[in-house]
Design brief:
227 residues; 49% helix; Glutaredoxin; alpha/beta; flat; 7 helices; 5 strands
């Protein structure tokens, strides 16, 4: 027991030391930044201010442009023809191929509505699979729901059913967000190597961490409907 206590103490000291080191690095970085600002003359400060204002203006213009193209909301498009037009004018597009009678499509809708508002850099659409046979054939969509993840007008990746989302109807919006981040179709700020469902104990340890390449290069050949 004494040996165990000693190793706990050592571990604690190591951890405390690491935390102190991290704090020291942050502090030094802040000091350097403050010193840099102190040494700037008025012209340099003015120049820095202008650059920041320019960047802010640019990002506001970009935001307005996205909103004018229908980003920021999850929308249904009426036909295959609309699909080509919508995809042509936006760099990043997520399109949900759904069917009215499939319950899982409603689950997907709920999460996509949230993500469309959060990630206005990406256009979020839905299209009735039964009204778009040509597209479903061309994109080889056989399982409903399927998300087509499109970059620069090309379909780069698919989320087929809920397989990549923890294989459960109860997956979180964060899990879907992570999966879209893996396809680089949204600006994802989390850690791609650590899927959110890893930390949910109820899924056990049967899910391995997926790396970006495995997902992007995945080949799907299921031909069953996922109701």
């Amino acid at each position: 027991k004494m040996a165990a206590d000693t190793s706990v103490d050592i571990l604690q000291k190591v951890l405390e030391n690491e935390i102190l080191q991290s704090a020291k690095v942050v502090e030094e970085h802040l000091d350097a930044e403050i010193q840099k600002l102190d040494q700037m003359d008025e012209d340099e400060l003015e120049c820095l201010k202008q650059r920041r204002l320019e960047a802010l203006k640019k990002s506001q213009q970009q935001k307005q442009e996205w909103l004018s193209k229908g980003h920021g909301e999850y929308r249904e498009i009426p036909s295959e023809r609309d699909f080509f037009q919508e995809v042509k004018e936006s760099k990043n597009v997520v399109c949900h191929f759904y069917r009215d009678t499939t319950f899982r499509c409603q689950i997907m809708d709920k999460h996509l509505t949230v993500l469309a508002k959060k990630h206005i850099e990406t256009k979020f659409l839905k299209l009735n699979a039964e009204k778009s046979p040509f597209l479903c054939e061309r994109l080889r969509i056989k399982v409903i729901p399927t998300l087509a993840l499109i970059k620069d007008g090309k379909t780069q990746d698919y989320v087929v059913g809920f397989t990549d989302l923890g294989n459960t109807d109860d997956f979180t919006t964060e899990t879907l967000e992570w999966r879209l981040g893996c396809a680089d179709v949204i600006n994802y700020s989390g850690n791609l190597m650590d899927p959110p469902f890893q930390s949910q104990k109820k899924y056990g340890t049967s899910f391995t961490k997926l790396d970006k390449k495995t997902i992007r290069g995945k080949i799907y050949d299921s031909d069953s409907d996922d109701d």
